[in-house]
Design goal:
Length: 448
């Protein structure tokens, strides 16, 4: 065994969740040798890249698909990342201020939003309730050419827009500044993981490495690796691709989310000022894609291996398709991808937010959007919307899809660090982690 190829922990993947763990192990544990393998030439080039997601720090305040209990969890996870940006002076460098709101359209949604505001206002004391008249001042395009009544719950000047790829790169830099033997291997694709005795043997395209503990943070590929190693056979993975549309003019200056249909499994359309180019993005769409990475050449066989289709998987699909709302939603989202008709159809979707929007005002955002591996529990025959963490009784774990996305990267890193250090008889400085990164007593995130 080559000594410098033996690590306490090896992390497979280089996105926001992987890099958050890399940083957490460097700063808050006494592990001395950790390696991270990324198969592409840079950190965070896939779903964590700024073009692949909505660039939102999800706090649970404007996401109407969260219950109060779920929102408390989401808020705590978001506070960790928010506090990290303060700790390392990243405010206004990787995270930026915008107004944000959850928009209610029509009397039924307004009634719902009023009740939701009353239920959630103690958890988010910075949130305000805005009438149509107030919204006309905050975002005039919301009321221009609109007949129906609207309202919203929202916050002004909130640090809610975030560049996750830059955060990921800061995690790596700060980790390497702390410890010498925290190594990052780029352009190094892992092709096999094998357990031999007390060690895991990691085979890449170029070399062989050894680890006492392995964490696979590789999106849909995490499920693929788990299945190859005999784990999580009761779970299946279906990749959902999301696309976006850009407006030709900057029509809004706020993050504007809409009320989620509780029957639909994916996010309702929202508008986001893009921090990369100054434009405004609307989306995402939601489309099942037979591949494990968006805009990359993948082998179809890998999709089938991660899906692991059987009668239980088909039963989940059947249950989705027999529901009128879900079936129509899936059909519409397919049409939103079809050139020639997609702009006209999606403009109607945006009109719930901006009534004056026309097809000539938007353009399809080419090569923008990511892919979310959605987990199916084949035993319970339903979609799973939890953290997507597969633990075992061995020194290996798999993170398939964190919830809510990149926001929960440090929460995931904390949980993984506890498990790793316990298994390896090392120490995790939870007291210091909490002091620096956890907002005590669920205080509100800073908005000014």
């Amino acid at each position: 065994m080559t000594k410098n190829h033996h690590y306490d922990t090896i992390i497979i993947g280089g996105g926001i969740t992987a890099t958050a763990l890399f940083f957490t192990l460097a700063k808050y544990t006494n592990l001395n040798r950790v390696a991270m393998f990324e198969k592409y030439s840079d950190i965070a080039t896939l779903n964590s890249h700024e073009s692949s997601n909505s660039q939102t720090l999800h706090c649970g305040d404007i996401e109407t698909n969260y219950t109060l209990e779920k929102a408390k969890e989401v808020k705590k996870a978001a506070s960790m990342l928010d506090n990290y940006t303060k700790l390392y002076n990243l405010r206004d460098r990787v995270i930026f201020k915008f107004n944000k709101m959850a928009l209610a359209v029509g009397d039924q949604e307004i009634s719902y939003m009023k009740n939701r505001f009353e239920e959630f206002k103690n958890l988010y004391p910075y949130m305000e309730y805005w009438t149509k008249e107030q919204l006309a001042e905050i975002e005039p395009q919301l009321v221009n050419q609109r007949e129906e009544n609207i309202s919203a719950m929202g916050a002004r000047d909130s640090y809610c827009a975030i560049n996750y790829s830059e955060v990921a790169k800061s995690f790596v830099k700060n980790a390497k500044d702390l410890k010498d033997n925290f190594d990052v291997y780029l352009n190094e694709e892992v092709i096999n993981i094998e357990k031999k005795g007390n060690l895991y043997v990691i085979t890449t395209l170029h070399d062989t490495y050894f680890a006492n503990f392995v964490v696979v943070n590789a999106g849909a590929h995490s499920m693929l690796f788990a299945h190859k190693l005999g784990y999580a056979k009761e779970l299946s993975c279906i990749p959902i691709g999301g696309s976006f549309y850009y407006t030709k003019e900057k029509v809004i200056n706020s993050k504007i989310y809409t009320v989620q249909n509780p029957k639909l499994p994916f996010a309702a359309v929202h508008g986001d000022p893009d921090i990369s180019n100054g434009l405004v993005r609307f989306g995402p769409t939601a489309l099942v894609l037979p591949k494990l990475e968006r805009y990359k050449h993948n082998h179809f066989i890998e999709f089938l291996q991660s899906l692991s289709p059987d009668t239980n998987t088909l039963k989940v699909f059947y249950d989705l398709l027999v529901d009128d709302d879900i079936r129509n939603y899936m059909a519409k989202n397919f049409l939103y991808e079809v050139p020639g008709i997609r702009r006209r159809l999606f403009a109607k979707e945006i009109q719930k937010i901006i009534p004056s929007m026309r097809s000539d005002d938007i353009e399809f955002a080419e090569n923008v959007g990511g892919l979310r591996p959605q987990i199916i529990d084949k035993v319970q025959k339903k979609l799973i919307f939890s953290d997507g963490k597969i633990t075992t009784n061995e020194p290996i774990l798999f993170n398939v899809t964190p919830s809510p996305g990149a926001t929960s990267c440090l929460k995931s890193a904390m949980l993984d660090s506890k498990l790793i250090t316990k298994f390896l008889d090392k120490k995790f400085d939870e007291k210091r982690f909490n002091k620096e990164l956890v907002t005590k007593n669920q205080e509100e995130l800073e908005v000014a």
